[in-house]
Specification:
Blueprint: H1 8-13, H2 15-44, H3 53-102, H4 105-108, H5 113-131, H6 133-155, H7 157-163, H8 167-204, H9 206-211, H10 215-268, H11 273-314, E1 336-343, E2 353-360, E3 365-370, H12 376-383, E4 394-396, E5 399-400, H13 406-412, E6 413-416, H14 427-431, H15 440-449, H16 453-457, H17 476-490, E7 494-498, H18 506-519, E8 524-528, E9 540-545, E10 548-553, H19 555-561, H20 564-579
Parallel strand pairs: 3-8, 3-9, 6-7, 7-8
Antiparallel strand pairs: 1-2, 1-4, 4-5, 9-10
Helix pairs in contact: 2-3, 2-6, 2-11, 3-5, 5-6, 5-8, 5-11, 6-7, 6-11, 7-10, 8-10, 8-11, 10-11, 15-17
């Protein structure tokens, strides 16, 4: 039952609908079991005195009535059971998606998008089939098998025992093949996940593939993945292909035995013709349950294999939680303090920071400078709890970082990251992503602040222009400025710009920085930049070197030191002159 630990609550939630559907299914099966008895009665009375054509017509009409009732109630149980399986799939998918939203960045650093997508599609479909058609086939098989068996015994016990002699062979075969089908299906799903990951990566990185003329190489890799998927599927199909014909052979042996021994008993007078026809009809009714056993085994093995793959993700505990949060802290003002921060990603890795301390008053602008890889982005990721920092290292408004609920942190601290992500939607929707109820006037206002309004107005559809996936149809500078506008619209207590003006020309950069200074006089801003020109207005600038703060001060103070900051500034000034 451990495999079903996440889905059992969902089953219990819909237990009434499932029970009603199974009840109606059994009622329909009962109606079908009446028909052989009607035929038996009609045949046995064919030679009886007083039995006329009218009686035959009554029997036929009775069978027709049962067929109509069966059709109506079949529709009802299909709506209840099969329809419920789709709702069940939707609930599991929602659970899976909600869980993905809770997992930290470190989880996604080691997971392929295609792998996660495969679990949300193919695996969920297999689970739905198990709880949809699997439920139906199981209930149908159990009831029809037991009922038909009892009715056959009531007609001729000896013939019934003879007819089930081959069944133990079928049971052994089912157990033997079931395990192999389970393993084969799990390998198919894993191969499909690898194939999906390959396709997703190549489509997302198509510009890189083309830029390096690697189309032929990637097509070759794709062929290998596709070939492996076909190979795994053929193995599964070969097992299933052996399964069903063997079941059919067992059924044929059973029916052949009934034909011989039942026919002999009828000739001898131990059974009348009506009983023989009814017995053979009930044996025919048993054919479906025997075949369904194979389906049930396949559905169960496929479904549990997929459910285990989903459980692997659902079992992962989120690293970033609100376990220590104080729900009364529902806003931040932007006063930030970092105390003796020491941090490394893993115990076996060297420290990223070794004793960093920073104080930032509300309304201040902090600039962070340092060589590539010194940990500038890591510092703001710790503040946002993308990764968990050490306790008592970060304080906001005097409260320890862990006491703030995550939704408050993420609402009041906005970041424009290095890698801009835009959704395949309109420009207006991308700007309003953090504030969906924003008016068009608000959207255009922040676009002007980010110096991107004129670019947008130049597009054919303006703000209703749909950008490609990840904003691929826009230039790097346009993407950065749209992301800047998105952050401005939220008007956060703390705004973090993580090298977010790198693709913007110096003139436009200056315009945006002037807007930021004016817009955020009373709010806190943190700027990570390689260009010194982006941070000269900051009240405080820190230079990080070897995990420590090597220099601290404003622009004039740092230039006076004549060290790392001054060297970076002079180097950039020379580069700018060379560009001219």
């Amino acid at each position: 039952m451990n495999t079903f630990r996440y889905v059992l609550p969902l089953l219990k939630k819909n237990i009434k609908r499932i029970a009603l559907g199974i009840g109606i299914l059994i009622f329909v099966d009962s109606l079908q079991l009446i028909i052989p008895k009607i035929i038996q009665h009609a045949i046995n009375n064919l030679e009886s005195t007083g039995f006329t054509q009218r009686h035959l017509l009554y029997s036929a009409l009775f069978i027709l009535g049962l067929a109509v009732l069966t059709t109506v109630f079949k529709y009802v149980w299909r709506i209840l059971l099969i329809g419920n399986s789709w709702r069940f799939q939707n609930n599991i998918r929602q659970m899976y998606y909600d869980h993905l939203m809770k997992l930290s960045q470190s989880f996604y650093n080691h997971q392929k998008t295609g792998e996660l997508m495969a679990r949300a599609t193919n695996d969920l479909q297999a689970v739905r089939m198990m709880f949809g058609f699997g439920f139906v086939a199981a209930a149908d098989t159990i009831f029809l098998s037991v009922a038909s068996f009892l009715l056959m015994i009531s007609i001729n016990p000896k013939l019934t025992l003879l007819s089930i002699v081959p069944l133990p062979i079928m049971t052994v075969f089912i157990i033997f093949m079931g395990k192999r089908i389970h393993i084969a299906f799990k390998r198919v799903q894993t191969s499909f996940a690898n194939l999906s990951g390959m396709v997703q990566e190549n489509i997302s990185g198509i510009r890189v593939v083309k830029a390096f003329v690697q189309e032929e190489s990637e097509v070759g890799k794709m062929s290998d993945y596709a070939g492996d998927y076909v190979k795994k599927n053929l193995r599964l199909v070969s097992l299933q292909a052996a399964f069903h014909p063997f079941m059919g052979m067992i059924i044929s042996i059973s029916m052949g035995m009934v034909l011989v021994f039942g026919g002999t008993a009828t000739i001898k007078g131990d059974m009348n013709i009506g009983e023989y026809v009814a017995f053979y009809s009930y044996l025919g009714t048993l054919v479906w349950p025997m075949i369904a056993i194979g389906w049930i085994v396949n559905l169960y093995q496929n479904g549990t294999a997929s459910l285990k793959r989903l459980n692997e993700i659902l079992d992962i505990e989120p690293e970033i939680t609100d376990e220590k949060a104080n729900p009364k802290l529902d806003r931040t003002d932007g006063q930030i303090e970092i105390k003796d921060l020491k941090f490394s990603y893993r115990d076996d890795l060297p420290p990223v920071f070794d004793g960093i301390s920073i104080q930032l008053k509300k309304g201040d602008t902090l600039a962070i400078v340092g060589r590539t890889g010194c940990g500038k982005s890591t510092l703001v990721n710790l503040l946002l709890r993308v990764y968990n920092p050490p306790e008592n290292a970060f304080f906001i408004d005097g409260y320890e970082l862990y006491t703030y609920p995550l939704d408050v942190l993420h609402r009041d601290i906005a970041i424009v990251p290095q890698e801009i992500f835009l959704f395949s939607d309109t420009i207006a929707s991308n700007i309003a992503f953090g504030k969906p109820d924003a008016t068009r006037d608000d959207i255009e206002r922040v676009a002007r602040l980010a110096s991107v309004h004129d670019d947008i107005a130049g597009f054919k559809d303006g703000y209703e222009t749909t950008v490609g996936e990840r904003g691929v149809t826009l230039s790097g500078g346009q993407k950065q400025r749209i992301a800047m506008a998105r952050a401005f619209l939220c008007n956060p207590a703390v705004l973090i710009l993580d090298d977010s003006l790198s693709a913007v020309d110096t003139r436009t950069e200056k315009e945006i920085l002037e807007q930021i200074v004016e817009l955020r006089r009373t709010k806190t801003t943190i700027i990570i930049a390689h260009r010194i020109s982006s941070i000269q207005h900051a009240e405080q600038t820190v230079v990080i070197e070897n995990g420590k703060i090597a220099e601290r001060g404003n622009h004039e103070e740092l230039m006076a030191l004549g060290s790392i900051y001054a060297e970076l500034y002079e180097k950039q000034q020379i580069e700018e002159k060379l560009k001219e």
